[in-house]
Amino acid sequence: MLGRALMPRQLPTINANATVTNTLRGGTQTNAMNDRPTTSSNSEFPRRTPRQPGFLLAALTLAVTLLAGCSPERSEPETTAPPAATVPAADLVLRGGKVATVDKALGEAQAVAISGAEIVAVGSNEDISAYVGDDTQVVELDGRFVMPGFIEGHGHFMSLGRARQILDLNNIRNWDEATNIVAVAVDQSEPGAWIFGRGWHQEKWDTVPTDAVDGVPRNDSMNAVAPENPVFLGHASGHASFANDAALAAAGIGDDTPDPPGGTIVRTPEGKATGLLRETAQRLVSSAIEEYEALRTPEEVDQVERERVFLASQEALANGVTSFHDAGASFATIDFFKTMEAEGALPIRLYVMVRRESNEDMAEQLPNYFMPIEGDDYLTVRSIKRQIDGALGAHGAWLLEPYTDLETTPGLVLEPVEEIERTAEIALEHGFQVNTHAIGDRGNRETLDIYQRVFEAADVDGTAQRWRIEHAQHIDPADVPRFAQMGVIAAMQGIHATSDGPWIPSRLGEERTRLTSYVWRDLIESGAIIGNGTDVPVEPIDPIASYYATVSRMTNKGEKFHPEHVMTRMEALASYTINNAYAAFEEQAKGSITPGKLADIVVLSQDLLTVPEESIPDTQIEMTIVGGVVKYQRSES
Fold first, then answer.
1. Quick check: 479 and 375 in contact, CB under 8 A?
2. Smallest Cα–Cα separation from 67: which of 579, 594, 524, 486?
3. What pLDDT is recorded for position 36?
């Protein structure tokens, strides 16, 4: 794999308020910086050799930095700086702040020194002053809060970029607004052109049409505004889509088309398809979309894909995200990422899970795609994503008992248990991690059962494998202890709890909700490791919002959703940093501000650990640093 190392260069002093001041010999210049992330050409970043010696020092901190239960105490800084006479000048120094190292041995500090892509020292302002030379770039923090860069523990990278290229339906208040947005898009399109959008969620609307089926409108109004344009609108969860008649016709879906395994074509009482396609039924439209998109030239496809990388990276950096766990990419997409990494064109670090490849192809190809972290890596691959069930909002989560509001079903099985179990066996053979989407209580139990059978058959320690359950939203109390016992990581998303909280009881009932839903406290106290994220673009890639949800459980209705399961501030910080690094086998390189680790750091406007709870959402991302390079800086405007 390719990495990037900084070359010596003249560097200015930066004030975290977003003004760059050149204080080098020869004069002073001030340049306003804007909100757009900055990316550098690969021309000044030669290929980096494999892991640098500093990573050996970082590895020694593993025993004292992992997990929420081992979160750092806020203490007087313990310097790591050697005597002043022996230190070379750093490339970058952050000083005058409150540095949460997320390293128990270091506690809280004031300043950080960075050389190349790595952290070289952490300590007091006085200690780190020894690292400031004539060409050192100095960031005056003025008391601001510094922490390891946020690691997005579960998101969909290219889908985030694509979501910025199509209609945004996240904030619509009702179906009429969706129809109006589509009508405007149709006016701007040629007849026959497809109209794509995503983000709608019927549970968040103020009204629903009276003739709705299963709480979702029929496609009559969409047919009226787009009679000649196929319309395909993805649900916010990604587990359902809405199609007008033109899209259904293009896909060959009629009223008599049978439901596919793991999916539902929702129909009116009279048997007419409403346009709502649940779970795997969405795939029935895929071939028609692929046929339409095949009209593009290879150059146009490449341009669109690169734009998605840029748009996703720009949004991630503006939100303080320095690493991104991409929950699913094909071998072809990974090859594309490899090309971009070789060009130095990946602005943030990606931990990619192999997705939508057959067991046969994975058995043959996985050895060619095993890419653990080496040095200043921007692309690592060593895991596989599977999906046992769907989403609760779309009645697709697999439950032990039927839905309270849809008693005819306990949910859907999206991928057969036997197929996932075979994937797990292949993964174990090739040293790959398995990360299985499971939302319902039965989905979680079945996944744990699969993992247990595979571990026992191979006589291996599950903890060493670090297999994950993605989402882990609704867990029967009997299954909670099994996560820690088997070493299974709960890769959850804090923001889902407060976003879904107001309507979960309508699906599960009050008692089942209380016992099974987002039981973080139970998991932590049982010894389980919890990672955090947003599932972007299901939710905005906003770690501050997800952090706030994790420590408050405050919904948008102004009510706390079972607050007995809140995390402490430090547990939540660990869930977004060192825990996610551990969940990717990368804790030796990132997740804490420790000498020898990569200089992936974020500067915030206020202290997440001490600011009043209600003020946490007001926190601003001031600066995002990846590998020692300032890639985003907030402008004062």
1. no
2. 579
3. 31
Rounded to an integer, what distance in angstroms lies between the CA atom of residue 94 and that of residue 90?
Answer: 10
Cβ contacts of residue 272 below 8 Å, gap of 6+? Answer: 255
Which pLDDT score is estimated for 203? 82
Closest CA to 323 of 150, 537, 81, 530: 150
Q: Do domains 13-148+627-633 and 159-293 have the same CATH topology?
A: no
Give the phi and the psi of residue 61 in degrees, each rounded to 5. Answer: -85, -5
> Judging by DSSP bridges, how do beta strands 231-235 and 195-200 pair with one another?
parallel
pLDDT of residue 85: 54
Q: What is the pTM of this model?
A: 0.81
Check if the beta carbon of residue 237 is closer than 8 Å to that of residue 387.
Answer: no
Cα–Cα distance measured from residue 535 to residue 443, given in angstroms and rounded to the nearest whole number:
18
559 vs 232: CA distance, rounded Å: 34
Distances (CA, A) of 5 to 41, 44, 391, 628, 633: 12, 9, 42, 9, 21
CB neighbourhood size of 172 (10 A): 20
Q: In the CATH scheme, what architecture does the domain 13-148+627-633 have?
A: Roll (2.30)
Tokens of 624: 């995002």
- Cα separation of 129 and 346, whole Å? 33
Tokens of 178: 């969706």
Cα separation values, 578 from 71, 101, 540, Å: 9, 10, 22
Residues of the chain with pLDDT under 70: 1-85, 636-637
Residue 74: predicted pLDDT: 42
Query: Three-state SS across 240-274?
Result: EEEECHHHHHHCCCCCCCCCCCCEEEEECCCCCEE
Which string of DSSP letters, residue by residue, matches 366-379?
A: HHHH-B---SSBSE
What is the pLDDT at residue 421?
98
CA contacts within 13 A on the Cβ side of 578: 30
**By three-state DSSP, how is residue 528 classified?**
coil
In the chain, domain spans: 13-148+627-633, 159-293
Burial of 213 (0-12, 13-18, 19+ CB in 10 A): middle
Within 13 Å, how many C-alpha atoms sit on residue 363's CB side? 9
Q: What is the DSSP string of 455-499?
A: HHHHT--HHHHT-EEEE--B--GGGHHHHHHHT-EEE--HHHHHH
- Taking the CA atoms of the chain, what radius of gyration do you get in angstroms? 25
15-612-578 Cα angle (round to 5):
70
Beta-bridged to residue 232, according to DSSP, are 196, 243
Residue 146: partners with Cβ closer than 8 Å, 6 or more residues away: 94, 97, 98, 99, 100, 112, 593, 601, 602, 603, 604
Neighbours of 199 (CB within 10 A): 23
Q: Please provide residue 631's backbone torsions phi and psi, each rounded to the nearest 5 degrees.
A: -110, -10
| Crossing angle (nearest 10°) for helices 441-458 and 417-430 | 40
The yes/no answer on whether domain 159-293 falls in CATH 3.10.310.70 is yes
